[in-house]
Amino acid sequence: MKPQLKELQVYAAGLSDEALKRKTGYEGEFSRLASNENPIGPTPKVQEVLSTALTGLNYYPDPEAHHLKEKLSAFYDVPTEQIFVGAGLDEVIMLISRAVLSQNSEVITSEGTFIQYTTHALIEGTQLITVPLKQGMFDLDAMLGEVSDNTNLIWICNPNNPTGTYLSEEAIRTFLNQVPKEVSVVLDEAYFEFVEATDYPDSVQLLKEFPNLIVLRTFSKAYGLAAMRVGYAMTSKEYVSEFNKVKLPFNVTTLSLLAAEVALEDQAHLQAYIASNKAERDIFFSKPYSEHFLPSQTNFIFIMTDKPQVLFDTLIKYGVISRPMPNGVRVTIGTHEDNKKIDVALTEFFGA
What we know:
Blueprint: H1 17-24, E1 31-32, H2 44-51, H3 66-76, E2 83-86, H4 88-100, E3 106-110, H5 115-123, E4 127-131, H6 140-146, E5 151-157, H7 169-178, E6 184-188, H8 203-209, E7 213-218, E8 231-234, H9 237-246, H10 254-265, H11 267-285, E9 300-304, H12 308-317, E10 320-321, E11 323-325, E12 328-332, H13 336-350
Parallel strand pairs: 1-10, 3-4, 3-5, 5-6, 6-7
Antiparallel strand pairs: 2-8, 7-8, 9-12, 11-12
Helix pairs in contact: 2-10, 3-10, 4-5, 4-9, 12-13
């Protein structure tokens, strides 16, 4: 076994509804708002097409994800050879790490961001450098100060998970212009569909200027296909070629690829959910207790508190499953009914 695995813990996905009911005594239906999933689900067209697509399951899926890449290519105006498809962004992150990192290299990221960047750096035996967040955001100046001749890879989550904050195009462009061109920079944009900020970077255009840039997006969040596991990277042809060497031959299932194609086509359903999420988010930020929130450009809210377990337990008391963090709690913006339960819990917790 790799000795570095001793430093890692198995990912804790949280207790099941049944286990939580036994533990808490809560009798109603839980609102599952710990993992930033789409509470209304994907377009109904996904279920329609999947119900008629159950033939040919004895054959392996398309290893090149050809049809999905064509649709993504048309949607973003990016050549298909610059698109890499994986079994969720978790796999894409793993494969980037496998392709880029070695025991002699260094990874730079933030202390307060998606844990998988750290996990795979440790698995690859790479030197990991983490920089504290600054007001809930990546501190790009501090990260630049950590770049050395051994730096191979930099991870930036934008908007950031779990804080919901974002970096502007000016900040990202200034950063990329100062990073050595041999250093790979990943912009994980799993939540970009939710962003309203007009100064958010157009990272697809940035790909034309920075061949060391890798942009990640997913069908798990806004498109409501978390169970299907489809994520993708847009980057240079050279990077895609290397990623293809380390991926499993048939990594994304036939049904998953088909579901993603259909979901991408139904932009009306996507926009309806985004509008609903915005309306509910605006309600939360109009409340007196919103002074305890970090600003959010996502489908979740980070609630700052020095008593995260108490807040988690208060939310559980009202049937809301959230995600406790060292300095706060992250909760997904749910349906209107879900959010009324959150409101009651936060009003009680903060005495608002």
